[in-house]
Design goal:
390 residues; alpha+beta; Beta-Lactamase; Heat Shock Protein 90; 6-stranded mixed β-sheet; 5-stranded mixed β-sheet; 12 helices; 47% helix
Length: 390
């Protein structure tokens, strides 16, 4: 199509039938604008579809009033009308309010005397796709930046975790060797002092030495408990294997044989499933739960029962006793490190249930208690199907 459309002065913008026929069948949206006010005097069908309006809504109105175009488009139209030069624009200007990514060409309409009487506006691209593609590219760029930032943050956190694990290993070594050695010395020399000066120390001095020995022994037990707590949560797959929990249960009963016999406890279980994990973790778990049930037995002989059932996507275990029970306000507290409800009245370090929680959470489960004071307690814990392989 020629870059100029000439019309007779008396016809002004009454476009020739041939030109109109071409415009009507054009696959590109097209409009003819009259005067420096850019009044629409013609639109082809596809331009109407582009704007979603009928010809009666467009013809006779200012182009800027019916088409959501930006200031740059109107400036180019003014320039075409003033200079007679063809203008082409590719892309959408920043901040444009219309929903289309418009690329367009504009050229002058000349009268027979070559005076500029209007302009032809032809859209070369007018679909939302380009704007969506641009937005998607921008989103991808932003996402890649965020991904890079998250990767850096993850690397930093992994390094911090590595250092924390290294610190934990050093602490475990210190707790099992360096810190316990001076405690053994305190205990040994306290006993030597009692033996060497037997009959020479007054009763008050003897009581002081006994307190020293007792305190050293308690500190040793606390350090051993902390070491067990650290080991229960260590992220290691060493020793991971197929575990028969029925065998673990029998092993725990053997470990607690003295306590069971002294308390006349009856410890039973249903058939327990096989799982994947580290056997030592589950020995700790069941031994602490059953041992606590014996320890907090109250006045009755302990009756302790272990069961397991399929539950949703995993196993739900229950360790039920007929002991002292726990008031609901202490349910959360008892799982804390060194949290004890009975002070020195019942011996212990207050770390057993914290170890249980650490073991269960390490395998992707959770642990909780249901109880009433003086009515026994049931400790529940869950494991994903197959033992929570992690």
């Amino acid at each position: 199509m020629d870059a100029e459309v000439k019309v007779k002065p008396e016809q002004e913008l009454d476009t020739p039938s041939l030109w109109r026929s071409i415009a009507e069948s054009s696959p590109l949206p097209m409009a003819v604008l009259e005067g420096d006010g850019h009044i629409i005097c013609y639109v082809n069908p596809i331009f109407c579809r582009l704007l979603g309006k009928g010809r009666e809504d467009l013809i006779g109105n200012a182009f800027s009033g019916v088409a959501l175009v930006g200031d740059e488009c109107l400036s180019l139209l003014d320039r075409v009308y003033q200079t007679g030069h063809t203008e082409i624009h590719n892309g959408q200007e920043d901040g444009a309010s219309h929903p289309f990514y418009w690329s367009y060409a504009m050229w002058p309409v000349l009268a027979a005397n070559n005076s500029i009487v209007g302009a032809v506006f032809q859209v070369t691209e007018g679909t939302p796709f380009h704007q969506q593609a641009a937005a998607m590219n921008q989103a991808l760029m932003i996402a890649s930046v965020h991904q890079y930032e998250l990767r850096e943050e993850a690397e930093t956190l992994n390094e911090q975790l590595r250092r924390a694990n290294e610190d934990l290993k050093q602490f475990a070594f210190a707790a099992s060797h360096d810190l316990q050695e001076p405690l053994r010395m305190i205990t040994s020399y306290s006993q030597l002092l009692l033996k060497g000066y037997r009959g020479q120390l007054d009763s008050e001095a003897a009581v002081c030495v006994e307190f020293i020995t007792k305190g050293a022994r308690q500190m040793r037990d606390l350090l051993a408990g902390l070491l067990s707590y650290s080991a229960a949560g260590a992220d290691s797959r060493e020793g991971t294997a197929h575990i028969n929990l029925n065998m673990v249960f029998e092993m725990v009963k053997q470990n607690l044989k003295v306590a069971i016999e002294e308390s006349s406890a009856v410890v039973t279980s249903e058939h327990l499933p096989d799982i994947e994990g580290q056997q030592s973790h589950f020995v700790q778990l069941f031994q602490n739960l059953i041992g606590n049930a014996i320890k907090y037995r109250g006045e009755r002989s302990p009756r302790i029962h272990v069961s397991a059932e399929r539950h949703e996507s995993g196993w739900r275990f229950a360790v039920t006793d007929n002991g002292m029970g726990i008031a609901p306000e202490y349910f959360a507290k008892i799982f804390g490190v060194f949290k004890r409800l009975h002070g020195q009245a019942i011996p212990g370090t207050g770390i057993g249930l914290a170890i249980c929680q650490r073991v269960v959470e390490r395998y992707g489960g959770r642990i909780w208690v249901e109880s009433q004071a003086s009515q026994g307690a049931t400790f529940y814990f869950t494991l994903p199907m197959g033992g929570g392989n992690r």
